[in-house]
Amino acid sequence: MYIVPEKEIAALLTRADAFTAVENVFAAMSKGDAYNFPVIREAIGYENALYGFKGGFDKAGMALGLKAGGYWPNNMEKHGAINHQSTVFLFDPDTGKVSAMVGGNLLTALRTAAASSVSIKHLARKDAKVMGMVGAGHQATFQLRAALEQREFEKVIGWNYHPEMLPNIEKIANEAGVPFEAVALEGMVEADVVISITSTFAPTVMAKHISPGTHVACMGTDTKGKQELETALLAQATVFTDEVAQSISIGEAQHAIAAGLIKQSDVNELGAVINGTHPGRTSDDEITLFDGTGVGLQDLAVAASIVKLAIAQGIAIEVDF
Ligand code: NAD
To answer: Which of 23, 98, 105, 194 has its CA at 20 to 30 Å from residue 299's CA atom?
Structure first.
């Protein structure tokens, strides 16, 4: 088996590689060539940690395996380590033998950013000019950096529950040469694309904050009970997701479904848009909404491409296991 340590990932994986791997796997899922296993996520009753497994099998990309990991809220304070910790394990689909172990922290940020970027590519208006960010934590920086590559954005506007964190995303906008402005939530009406990436359990983005024609990528809700958006917004929007089963159980759609505002059949696969079997956005006034719940197959696809690059560059550590 090969080991690719966390410290090697930054130099190996480009945003473009992550984007391609995620776009391909969403397409494969929608064709029925790849499927995710049910997610296990447990509050382990220690360190307030949430721990679990996301796995799957992609027959098109021949990737089998799982990502193990979760969220340790006290890591930064106590250990100087980021709060999300994960590792990907890949297995040989022909034999079941473990084939690789790959650091999953940066990989998770890049594959999550790639997912919202894929949604922007396929669903946002081509003339989108104002990028809106709700959230300014660890993931938000990756989200913004990747999103800014998808359209000719002229301005970034940002809101965060903890305003002192806004410089995190202002820095990314500045690096990309795009002006940044901190706004009240009401100011989000100016945005053509909104990414929401927070850990809240109570909705902050209301229907009145989003203008007709906007594309919203809701990326923070990945657990039962979390909620970033007012349910009325999902009722107004055309809703897309990475995987319908996750969207309606642990994603943003869980709340709109429970409230009876939308049905499971109203939640569409982004992969169908990529494959051309769903038209995607059909008018400039339509609100499109991507419920990005984060699927194991994203991790496996990106990990598999990292392993190939690491072997080619002589960085992968080979272990007789
Ligand atoms: P973080 O701890 O670095 O940042 C948390 C963010 O949420 C900050 O912007 C913070 O101000 C905001 N926030 C906290 N409490 C809030 C509240 N009550 N109301 C509004 N905003 C609040 O976390 P992170 O690593 O950036 O992760 C953000 C979220 O993204 C988490 O919920 C995480 O589980 C989720 N996530 C999703 C995926 C996916 O694939 N969809 C992948 C990774 C992380």
So the answer is: 194
